[in-house]
Amino acid sequence: MSPDAPVRAVISDFGGVLTSPLFESFAAWQRKSGLSFERLGQAMADATEHNSMHPLYELEKGTITEAQFLGMLEAELDPGTSLSGMRDVYFEHLHPNPAMIDFMRELRGRGLRMAMLTNNVREWEPQWRAKLPEIDEIFELVVDSAFVGMRKPDREIYEFTLERLGDGLAAEDCVFVDDVDVNCETAASLGMRAVHYLSADQAIAEIRAQT
């Protein structure tokens, strides 16, 4: 495909692109809980080994509940450790990214097809949607990993998003923006024009150059 061919659709991530950086929310929870990233990471690795599955991946695909996920991690931590407040602290420190939200609205106003593709948690939907009340105004399609049983960076969820957009859209017709580089790598491998989000100014400039 020629790099001069017109872009017809934009597919955007949610957390870390349309919101503040996710690490800020996780850092706030770490401060409150007293658990280091290293300790939590080790618990995740141990839970993966003991359950023959990666708990976070399965949570994001909706195959286990949030309660099951937390229970798997708590089983690998010191007795009496509770992770039950993680969700509340996470969302308390997650904030909208006005520059990107306004830009996405502008793109929709220009007639581009707009989709959101997010790895998320089924039980968290009310909270993350409340952070972006404009979501259905801006995005005609929202693909949430926890409700479709697939997650980024698996190529199937990208193909599913294109199928749901319909209208003969191909990967080459789309700009994909995400703050996780491996998610961008899959998008690029499918033929999408991938923008790795680092900052609003950088991402907006790269998307403008292609749309």
Structural description of this entry:
The protein has 211 residues and is of the alpha/beta class. The protein is 51% helix and 11% strand. It has a five-stranded parallel beta sheet, with helices on both faces. Strand 4, helix 11 and strand 5 form a beta-alpha-beta unit. Helix 1 packs across helix 5. It is globular and about 60 Å long.
Total E-strand runs: 5
Q: Count helical runs.
A: 12
The side-by-side strand order for the widest beta sheet comes to 3-2-1-4-5
Q: Give average pLDDT, whole number.
A: 94
User: How would you sum up the major sheet?
Assistant: 5 strands, parallel
Mind sketching the topology for me?
Blueprint: E1 9-12, H1 22-33, H2 37-51, H3 55-60, H4 66-74, H5 86-92, H6 98-109, E2 113-118, H7 125-131, H8 135-138, E3 141-144, H9 145-148, H10 155-165, E4 174-178, H11 181-190, E5 193-196, H12 200-210
Parallel strand pairs: 1-2, 1-4, 2-3, 4-5
